[in-house]
Amino acid sequence: MSIETKPANLVAQLRELDTFKDLPAEALEWLIDKSDYHIYKKGSYIFEPDQTVDHMQIILEGEYTIEIDRNGTRREMGVWGKGNIAGVLPFSRMTHSRAYGMPLEDTHVLELHRDYFVEMVNVSYDMVQALVAVMSTRIRDFSQIRYQDEKLLALGKLSAGLAHELNNPASAMVRSSEELYRGVHATPDKFKNVITMRITPEQTDRVNEILFSKLGNVQGVELSLMEKEEVRDDLMDWLEDHEVNDADQIAETYLDFGITVDDLDDICDIIEGKSVGPIMAWIESTLNLERLVAEIQEAAGRISGLIKAIKSYSHMDRASTMENLNVHEGIISTLIILKHKIKNKNIQLVKEFMPDLPQVCAIAGNLNQVWTNLIDNAIDAMEPGGTLTIRTAVERSHVCVYITDTGSGISEEDQSRIFDPFFSTKPMGEGTGMGLDIVKKIMDRHMGEIKIVESRPGKTTFRVCFALS
């Protein structure tokens, strides 16, 4: 980028900006003298990710947009124009840019190298104060954006997992209800065949006795693959020998409920060999309807359990006040919410919960934010097939929770910065750097403690401790 000739009216332009309007002319003239003047064309970059930042950039004319890369997709953070001050500022620790600055039109920028910041203190302390105020506002605004990003990122992850978990039982209910509908509509024909049979009430009771003894096997019976094949073949042979229609379908249902050839012989003896086909079809229909109703009940129970877990996780029916809590409840709710992610990576979950763990005084929703961030980070840190261990214990006068993953570990250098805002060990766009900062603030608010007790390749353990209630 070439250096342009400075316009003659730069002092007047600076006076139009809120940051510099009350500064003396000598200070502005010093700033202009030590700065370079650039014009960034539309389509170029004022700054880019990982670019060394060593200039303060005062936007005098034009507009530019700031975009960050999130999982390979650019996300616009906003549009800035005349009066905005980008780049490094006095007392700022910024070293590299993490975003793209793209001019929307030709953008005129006055740039001062950071080497002049020390001299600036002697030239105009008022200018330093004004620029520090700009930095404070920038940090506040950026923090709000990143906190919002963190919330949306967490919400997106949880929503995706819940959608998957709810979809499975919901789909099962749809399939079972459709099959139940077809079964119920086929019942009149089967009932017609049964009602035309001439069997006594005593015979009916004895057949029902065998039938109802098998209804308890609605979840299936435990047989090896070889045993199943053997029983299926025997059932098929018996049904075909007795000229029963749809023998393969009936045999499959009988196999699921544990009906054997001996049971069929008993039924045949009870009805004296008469109307075997209609009786077998009726029994199969009754068992199949029982299975479908059980599947619908189980799926509805799973959905109800998930909704209960969501209510427990979000505490939507409880006030955000300190109360005595069992930390196990929040951890279990969080694991249910993150179940989809755990299953997707084939993570082995080990829970070593201390029986009768004392309660802690905390805000339930805040604690769930702690568990969500730590468990989600642990899952992200591991390759498929890793192990997540959650252990609870009482140590002296504290309730402690240990969360251990088998990931690649955190370097000693990163451990000292892991709770800093905006710091992330994840690739660009995959983390906001606010998750553990939020966790640390929550723990401070609860007068608790969080620390890394061990981190090496293959094992990282975070410890969270709360004073006993």
UniProtKB/TrEMBL annotation:
Q: Which residues form the Histidine kinase domain?
A: 290-469
Q: Where is the Cyclic nucleotide-binding domain?
A: 19-138
Any single Pfam family the record assigns to this protein: cNMP_binding
The family database entries (SUPFAM superfamilies) matched by this protein are listed as: ATPase domain of HSP90 chaperone/DNA topoisomerase II/histidine kinase, cAMP-binding domain-like
Q: What is the lineage of its organism?
A: Bacteria, Pseudomonadati, Bacteroidota, Saprospiria, Saprospirales
Q: What InterPro entries does the entry give? A: cNMP-bd_dom (IPR000595), cNMP-bd_dom_sf (IPR018490), HATPase_C_sf (IPR036890), HATPase_dom (IPR003594), His_kinase_dom (IPR005467), RmlC-like_jellyroll (IPR014710), Sig_transdc_His_kin-like_C (IPR004358)
MF terms per GO, please?
protein histidine kinase activity
Q: What is its EC number?
A: 2.7.13.3
Recorded catalytic reaction(s): these are: ATP + protein L-histidine = ADP + protein N-phospho-L-histidine
Could you identify this protein by its name? histidine kinase
- UniProt KW keywords: Kinase, Transferase
Write down the top EC class of this protein.
transferase
